Amino acid sequence: MGLRDPLYWLYERRLERSLGTFEIPRHVGVILDGNRRWARISGLASAEAGHQAGAEKIFDLLGWCDEIGVQVVTLWLLSTDNLTRKREELEPLLKIIEGTVTRLRREGWNVNPMGALDLLPDSTARVMKEAHAATSGNSGLIVNVAVGYGGRREIADAVRSLLVAEAAKGTSLEELAERLDLDHIAEHLYTRGQPDPDLLIRTSGEQRLSGFMLWQSAQAEFYFCEVFWPAFRKVDFLRALRAYGARNRRFGS
């Protein structure tokens, strides 16, 4: 074992101990950014290798979250904009996503698909729907898998779902407009029934949300991490939790 290993371990233990005085977020959202750039600087032959490494990292993160008592994790794996990529780039990525969701199902996580599944290839949509059906009764950590996801699209889908549901009850537009409130829309989001995210993490140094959970992030704390996603370590996660816990959350101001 080299000199850095015990120092890293000691620093990790120190961070873990410091969390004892802080509140733990119930819901953590993560924008898994930097897979391709990590592959390039690592000298790997293709972006696909970076995406595969990033997929493996997901299971480390879920273990850390489960260990400290996080209730919900939302993973943004593929945006609606990403669906316009060239076929030779998109197809390997979708296969990696399918493999990741299959493994989530096999390991017993409660898998909840998020996104416009109708825009996905049939095989990808089927894997996500089957994982949800097979794991929805599982206890423990809920894992929202955002594939074909866009924040604006989610809000539009929620409003559309609300209108259809109210029309089925015979509610007129005038009646709906009179009593419509925020809760009505929230009940039709992909995350309905879940707490809104307390902490949103984005890796790779980019400091924007890019439309991630636009509705739900109104009161969330943001943490931007310089490291590329495949290189994200437990100490990086613990630093995010420490930063979150040290903030004075003033809701609505």
From TrEMBL:
Active site per the UniProt annotation: D33, N82 (proton acceptor)
Q: Which GO terms describe its molecular function?
A: ditrans,polycis-polyprenyl diphosphate synthase [(2E,6E)-farnesyl diphosphate specific] activity; magnesium ion binding; Z-farnesyl diphosphate synthase activity
Question: Where on this chain does substrate bind?
Answer: G34, N35, R36, R37, W38, H51, S79, T80, D81, R85, R202, R208, L209, S210
GO terms under biological process: polyprenol biosynthetic process
Q: Sorted alphabetically, which keywords does the UniProt record give? A: Magnesium, Metal-binding, Transferase
Protein origin, superkingdom: Bacteria
**What does the UniProt function comment say about this protein?**
Catalyzes the condensation of isopentenyl diphosphate (IPP) with allylic pyrophosphates generating different type of terpenoids.
Q: Which PANTHER family match?
A: DEHYDRODOLICHYL DIPHOSPHATE SYNTHASE COMPLEX SUBUNIT DHDDS, DEHYDRODOLICHYL DIPHOSPHATE SYNTHASE FAMILY MEMBER
Report the cofactor remark. Binds 2 magnesium ions per subunit.
Q: Which residues bind Mg(2+)?
A: D33, E221
- A Pfam family cross-referenced in the UniProt record is Prenyltransf
Quaternary structure, per UniProt, is: Homodimer.
PROSITE patterns named among the record's database cross-references = UPP_SYNTHASE
| Name of the protein in its database record | Isoprenyl transferase
Catalytic activity, EC: 2.5.1.-
Family label: Belongs to the UPP synthase family. Z-FPP synthase subfamily.
Which SUPFAM superfamilies does the record associate with it? Undecaprenyl diphosphate synthase
Cofactor(s), names only, from the UniProt record: Mg(2+)
CDD domains found in the cross-reference section? Cis_IPPS (cd00475)
Q: Which GO terms describe its cellular component?
A: plasma membrane
